[in-house]
Amino acid sequence: MTKHDAARRAFLVRAAVGAGAVAGAGLIPDAHAQLERHEQSGAAAPAHQHSSGAEHGAFFNHDDAATMAAFTERLMPGGPDKPGAGEAGVLNYIDLALSGAYADLQDFYRRGLAQLDAYCRKTHNGPFQRLSPEQQDEVIAALDEGKATGFTWPTAQDFFNTIRTHTMEGMFADPLYGGNKDFAGWRLVGFPGAQAMFTPIDLQSKQAFTRAPMVGLQTVASAPIRKG
User: Fold this and answer.
1) Which residue ranges make up each domain of the chain?
2) How many CA atoms lie within 13 A of 11 on its CB side?
3) Closest Cα to residue 220, out of 182, 176, 155?
């Protein structure tokens, strides 16, 4: 992992810690409502998982999924013992969100991805996912600085900021929403999740919390519901 990658990761981690390590609050009411419906029916709520590989997902087609996978990995690159966006399932999170709680952003993403593709082909003679990491970083910097041409709606900066926000949510929201696979994001920032108990030493410690198990809504949702 290059120094540039490390700096980008550090920025997102600091932002996540500043936000309490748990993003994606907009999805919580929808998820709670789903859990309540399953509880009332006596069935266990299913864990959500959609393909991020060759098959289509809940919203993205194959090409758009490949673009988003590459883009989010450049925003949150992995490294030795440090999960990146791909390992944490960020693409799956965004895909599911756009088919549910963020459905009002579907056209935003469609138009943004089409403009991104046109810009990459004009500037680098190829789609984003086929560019070198250095070229991808140049494109991302142009979006961030509002210098990428051909963007009308969404603007280049709005598109970049939205993907960055959703990447952070996919890294650090509860795994129930499709990202933060195996608590990768929480472990990265030392967020404890829900613990059965905290000891007095735990409560007084200022060090990152690392003890397993970490329990999220995903575990609760997939557990069988006992009937009284």
Assistant:
1) 3-222
2) 13
3) 176
Of 177, 206, 209, 169, residue with least CA distance to 190: 209
Strand partners, 215: 194
Strands (E), the chain: none
- Name the nearest CA neighbour of 136 among 73, 65, 52: 73
Could you report the per-residue pLDDT of 12-65, keeping only the tens digit for each? 556 555 555 444 434 433 433 443 443 444 433 334 444 444 445 799 999 999
Chain CA centroid to CA 94, Å: 6
The answer to whether residues 140 and 120 touch, using CB atoms and an 8 Å cutoff, is no
Separation CA 221–CA 31 (nearest Å): 10
Ordered DSSP codes for 153-187: SS-HHHHHHHHHHHHHHHHHS-GGGS-SGGGHHHH
